[in-house]
Amino acid sequence: MKKKRLLTGLLSLGLAAGVLVGCSNDSQGGDDEEVITLKFFSADGNQNMYFDDVIAEEITRLTGVNLEITAPMAGDEAQDVALMIANNEFPDLIYAKGSIDLLVNAGALLPLDDLIEEKGDNIRNLYGDKLGRLRYTSDDPAIYHVGTGAVQERILETSGTAQIQMEVMRELGYPQLETLEDFENAIRTYKEANPTINGQETIGLSLLGSDWRWLITVGNPAGMTLGFQDDGEWYIDPDTGEATIKYLLPEFREYFRWLNKMNAEGLLDPESFTHTPDTYFSKLSSGRVLAVMDQDWNISQTQAALVADGEDWRTFMPLPVTLEAGVDPVITRPNGFFGVTGVSIAADSQYQEEAFEFLNWMASEEAQILINWGIEGVHYEYVDGVRTFFPEVAEERNLNPDFTEETGIGHYIHPFPVWGNAAIDSSGNFIVPDSPEQIIADYNEAQRETLAAYGVDFFIDLFPTFEDFEGTSYGQAWTIPIPADTDLSLTMQRVGDFVQQGVTQAILAAPEDFDQAWDEVIEGLESLKALEANQEMTEIVQDRIRLWEQ
Amino acid sequence: MEEVSQLKNMSLNEEFRALKKGKSKWKQIKEQKVLIMMAFPFVIWLIIFRYLPILGWTMAFQDYKPQNGFFEQEWVGFDHFIELFQDQMFHQALRNTLGMGFLGLIFGFLASITFALLINELRFKKFKRFTQTVSYLPHFVSWVIVANLVTTMLATDGAVNQLLVFLGILDDPVHFMAQPRMFWGIVTAAEVWKSTGWGAIIYLAAMAGIDPGLYEAAQVDGANRLQRIIHVTLPGIRPTIIVLLIMSIGNVINIGFERQMLLGNNIVANQALVIERYALDYGIGLFRFSYGTAVGIFRSMISIILIFIANGFAKKIGEGRIM
Amino acid sequence: MKGLKRITAFDIFLVIFFILVCIVTLYPFLHVLALSLNDATDAVKGGIHIIPREFTLDNYRHIFSTNTALPRAFLNSVLRTVIGTATGVMSCAILAYTLSRKHFMFRKSISMLLVFTMYISGGLIPEFLLIRNLGLVNRFAVYIIPGLISAFNVIVIRSFMDGLPDALEESAKMDGANDFTIFLKIILPLCLPVIATVALFIAVGQWNSWFDTYLYARNNESLTTLQFELMKILEDANITVSQVNSQNAQQLMNRVSPTSVRMAITIIATVPILLVYPFLQKYFVTGLTIGAVKS
């Protein structure tokens, strides 16, 4: 048919044009003819990443590489990747995250095994014996990306735990809170004594359960307070690798029974599941919420607002509370390097060698110092052998929220290979600027006094130390990507939607109806084929364990 | 009788029609060549930009994988559609979509038309202009902000509850956002508020085309304000109303998901799920392109059916049809 | 309806009613404006209505300073709005005219063809491939050509034209004019209210669109549009559950701008287009059409 021929003709023209455009030599600095431009798609980027700050220039100077960065809108890389494949046009560097299997199936990614052998000295050094974690699957054990995520990590700060106002602790005489019951009593006692704060009604515990952050404030704390590590929606048996959807476990029933009780007694914000995020934030900023179960990065603005108002004591401190005594909350377990995602190189890229050299360089000491600290003499200097920011730079870094974007310091760490905050370079300095000293210097008045009252230097000292834990044989389950377009991914979507509704209902039900409501959740899960899902996930986890043992 | 009156009132159009029965197609084309040349480029445009992509519908009958060319895809026939129709969640979404769609349609029309009529009656020119400009501002405020405002107002300590308790209508505040039965109503009300001013614009334009002589004649006949509205203004914009109504009926199934997502929460989730959200979460979002396309085809079919019904109905009552 | 008449109770009711309407519709907009002029950290506390509590221009400064593409983007948006509106209105009007001629032999078939386009769509991937194959990617024309005809607008104009008396065409034809001249010189000038309306719709659509920039001109600084630049700062609205896990949630959060910055973006994005309608209002005057017809 004429149209088909016309289309094919136009298609070829379009492709040819596309290839020409893609390979054009953009000269950034203007003078250096050897600079090549690599197109880089980053699933975690935002639309504002132009490779044009001071650090970027330095990177180009040292490597001869200029990056043209693209990113999907609002983190949804599915459409972009699909279009890439349908178009058969790929950027040179791709950080595909969850869509990596689409690309592997399409044959779009270059296996990197040989390049790593020949030229990947920095990468080999970085990962050491964990290099195997970069492998794809048992069926296809090639390495398709160079990994991202910290390799050597020490955990200095807590996040995602139950948190309570320091004011409450102070008034109660700095008690030791071990169980959720202690936590509950502390809230109740304070609330009864102080029905209003600053003229507004006191709220005991508030959650953000009205949008996707349900997972952060309702779903995850459940596992944490039960002594399980964060495996997303799963419980994985550490010995066998058997996977179970966590809500099927009896322990979870008990956690949510506790939450149900909190609601029944009026200690839980009745609007937890309906208020908008902005309302939640404004409640927190007003100082009238006694406790939350949230991640620090989610509430950082509210804490800043309280401090700005002089209400240090109304900011939160983390608590190592668990459902039952004697159980350890596992937020401090270091699982080391996950190896699941990283930057890949397109199989049809014209610059395969250069791209790989670039990635290898990013894993070098020189690069890591540059992207973390900046340029010597411009941003930092060595004082008695200790690497320190210049005072103006340090201040900017603390106060200016756009510091990273403006200077580029810290902007290019993710998603390239990361040494980690426990890594020490050849000069004996930490690779990252976030030192313990910095954290201490950042504490506000109330935090300092509270820490003193408990006799510790850091809040993380209230938790079991991470040296007590060993990493698991599979990392963390949420890092294991579920292959696209499979029964498992479909089931998990349904499960996710269902669980959020069903568990919410159970929390809000009358206490005597709780068990029945929870039974309905279990039944619902089973009718959604939860048991089959468990099996499929088990296979995936066990495959991962096998891969990592190699 | 009929023929006589036809011959008597023969206008140019009817002359053409009477004569053309004897003419060949080519002669007709020659006579209408200017019209055809005017329309032709745009018809080509329609075919290229709107109909050519329909070839993509074949995806719904395949197990589409982006890396395979067209001929290498695996064909699965109607499997995706069968799966779709068996999905409980899809039926839920369909119910919600049609429910909220029709509610929004009915109340939206009533509100926009009434609003336009009232503005038209406003006599103080400057105030009239000001009001017109201000009334469509909500259309430009994004749903994110609107949802925030609505949720805050309807909170247990929000303005609405405070007012109702104060007036004694309620004893205790009602947690509006947590009542599944009220969700559709809340969405419709927010929708009306947001789009009434904007929707009235087109009726105002239509009203501008009404012969002022008709108003004068009506006044002379002793009609009061209300009667003038009913007998002059309304009939004057009747064709516009009907045309818009037909087109909107076709769109009932296409209501987007943004407002439901923003106003909804886990408690009312069953009432808030609409088809577009379903297609996103279970289609493209899971990389199931074929499934997503199947949902899209279903939506188009429903729209076309609705349009035919609405258009046929309009034909019956004698005016304003669009096909 | 001219001259001074006594003011009735109905008039008073209308005035009161519309004052209320103005309050209810103006409030959210002023609220957004107030938030945009309020200090970001303070804004988180909530409780701001239409007066900023801690006035600042920092939010606007932040947007303009971190984004050097804005002036170009603004220019492109204005260009595409003007050109797109002019071409779109003309195209829709011409097509509408042909479809309003009752003797047009293809009237029924083209109408149906047209109407269907409102409800069918090939989907994202096929449409993308089409644009690509036509060589429209990274060209300014991609803002104009693919959006040329909107069935809705054509039908609205046609419906208006249907209401004009046949006598107009007849007398013109008897004077020897062809269809195009009739369209341009006689029919079109009589359709000013509906043309103005459609122009407004198209203009708003052009001004607000960013998805096409996103798909077809994403990294092209010379083609970027205002809405797209602003959207980049505003990315948090559509995060779906399937994308969230503990680690990337943090990254997603890092991209969420403070409330007050988002409000400033809303203001920048909408104020220019709001200024268009007042200019078009003069076409909405009753009697413009009919008076001309009579003469």
Determine Rg of chain A (CA atoms, Å). Answer: 25 Å
The residue-averaged pLDDT of chain C reads 81
**Can you give the helix content of chain A as a percent range?**
40-55%
CATH superfamily of the largest domain in chain A: Periplasmic binding protein-like II
> Can you tell me the CATH architecture of the largest domain in chain A?
3-Layer(aba) Sandwich
| Low-pLDDT regions of chain C | 236-252
State the end-to-end CA separation of chain A: 54 Å
Helix and strand composition category of chain C: mainly alpha
Number of strands of chain A: 16
Remind me, CATH topology of the largest domain in chain C? MetI-like fold
Largest interface: B-C, 97 and 98 residues
Radius of gyration of chain C, in Å, reads 24 Å
The helix tally of chain C amounts to 16
CATH topology of the largest domain in chain A: D-Maltodextrin-Binding Protein, domain 2
CATH superfamily of the largest domain in chain C, by name, is MetI-like
Morphology of chain A? globular
Biggest sheet layout of chain C: none
Provide tags for this entry:
heterotrimer; B: 323 residues; mainly alpha; MetI-like fold; 17 helices; C: 295 residues; 2 domains; 65% helix; flat
Please give a structural write-up.
The complex is a heterotrimer of chains A (550), B (323) and C (295). Chain A has two domains: 24-146 and 343-414, D-Maltodextrin-Binding Protein, domain 2; 162-333 and 443-549, Periplasmic binding protein-like II (D-Maltodextrin-Binding Protein, domain 2). Chain A has 21 helices and 16 strands. Chain A has helices at residues 2-22, 54-63, 77-87, 100-105, 113-119, 121-127, 166-171, 180-193, 214-225, 250-264, 277-285, 296-308, 352-362, 365-373, 391-399, 403-407, 436-442, 445-454, 487-508, 514-527, 530-549; strands at residues 36-42, 65-70, 93-95, 149-150, 162-165, 196-197, 200-201, 203-205, 234-236, 243-245, 289-293, 316-319, 343-345, 380-383, 386-389, 417-418. In chain A, the strands form six sheets. Chain A has a four-stranded mixed beta sheet with strand order 2-1-3-13. In chain A, strands 8-11-5-12 form a four-stranded mixed beta sheet. Chain A is globular, with a radius of gyration of 25 Å. Chain A starts with a helix and ends with a helix. With 323 residues, chain B is mostly helical. Chain B starts with a helix and ends in a 6-residue tail after the last helix. Chain B contains 17 helices and no strands. Chain C has two domains: 16-56, no CATH class; 68-236 and 271-294, MetI-like fold (Orthogonal Bundle). In chain C, helix 4 (70-100) packs across helix 12. Chain C is flat, with a radius of gyration of 24 Å. Chain C starts with 8 loop residues before the first helix and ends with a helix. At the B-C interface, helix 2, helix 4, helix 6, helix 7 and helix 8 of B face helix 1, helix 4, helix 5, helix 6 and helix 7 of C.
